[in-house]
Design goal:
Layout lengths: L9 E6 L2 E6 L4 E2 L5 E2 L1 H8 L4 H18 L3 E6 L5 H9 L4 E7 L2 H13 L5 E5 L1 E2 L4 E6 L34 E7 L11 E4 L5 H6 L2 H7 L2 E5 L5 H9 L3 E6 L3 E6 L8 E4 L2 E4 L3
Parallel strand pairs: 5-6, 5-11, 6-7, 8-10, 11-12
Antiparallel strand pairs: 1-2, 3-4, 9-10, 12-14, 13-14, 15-16
């Protein structure tokens, strides 16, 4: 019997990040007629946010130089794994990545990309990071229709971003996934933490107080949908200096981290100087 006709969402792309499973529908157009989405960037330009990726790789090098091999990086909100793959490949032989993705379908692509690129120093989990351990009800977009899937907010609020399609938050239309706190992971070391969790950044930081106090990781945090001032106050209480990283992100470096002396800001972007 012939196979039923059905649409194709995920495709394999030869990107600058290696072979990547990408959703060709991962795009939306903002109110200024600018298309965006991880999949869109990869399919349109072969890569995603080159300057951001390069910045984090430089920061990982700093941590290795100052604290030795065994670097550990956590990718919170890993999507299909651009950062996870780039970090793991870069740190082959001297570092490890732990990635978290709460959208089940994106997690399948993330795990596939880890395997395709032979990143055996990366572990990825279908879970949300949060302030406490438990479960989170996660909405499910239609991955066969256009939307910026990485922009999906996991909780409903009156100001939810329109990502290209209507999102239902009632339980019958959602998946339930584990939610874990950073403190619950039992990390013996943490050098870098990236948070891109669509408005839940402060909650995740709140669930990592012990980790932040003990390991003082460098952080790249998206503040587009969060209270930036509240995040900066929180980090200041742990002895962090905060730098702008474009209009979307901040970089936080602890005052006792020798990496701090290597960072300057030029045109609103952090620059990491070689030692």
């Amino acid at each position: 019997m012939p196979l039923p006709l059905r649409p194709i969402a995920f495709v394999l792309a030869a990107s600058n990040h290696g072979s990547m499973i990408v959703n060709r529908n991962d795009h939306h157009v903002d109110d200024k007629s600018r298309p965006y989405g991880v999949g869109f960037q990869i399919l349109d330009k072969s890569g995603f946010d080159e300057s951001e990726v390069s910045l984090v790789l430089a920061l990982l090098d700093c941590r290795r130089n100052h604290f030795g091999n065994g670097v550990v990086a956590v990718d919170g909100g890993a999507n299909i794994g651009v950062h996870t793959i780039e970090w793991a490949r870069h740190m082959y032989g001297w570092g490890h990545v732990l990635g978290f993705e709460a959208q089940e379908v994106l997690y399948y692509a993330l795990a596939g990309n880890v395997a395709l690129n032979n990143c055996m120093n990366a572990r990825v989990k279908l879970a949300a990071l949060g302030e406490q351990c438990g479960e989170l009800v996660v909405p499910q977009p239609d991955y066969f229709k256009p939307a910026s899937f990485g922009s999906l907010e996991l909780r409903p609020n009156p100001d939810n971003e329109f990502i290209g399609q209507h999102i239902a938050y009632d339980a019958s239309a959602c998946n339930v996934v584990p939610m874990v706190s950073l403190d619950s992971l039992g990390l013996e070391r943490l050098d870098l933490l990236k948070l891109d969790v669509e408005g839940m950044e402060l909650e995740v930081l709140g669930g990592g107080r012990s980790v932040l106090a003990k390991h003082r990781p460098i952080m790249l945090i998206e503040v587009l949908k969060s209270d930036r001032a509240a995040i900066e106050r929180f980090l200041g209480g742990f002895g962090y200096r905060v730098f702008p990283a474009g209009h979307l992100n901040i970089v936080a470096v602890h005052a006792l981290d020798p990496t701090l002396s290597q960072i300057t800001v030029k045109n609103g972007e952090p620059i990491v100087a070689a030692e």
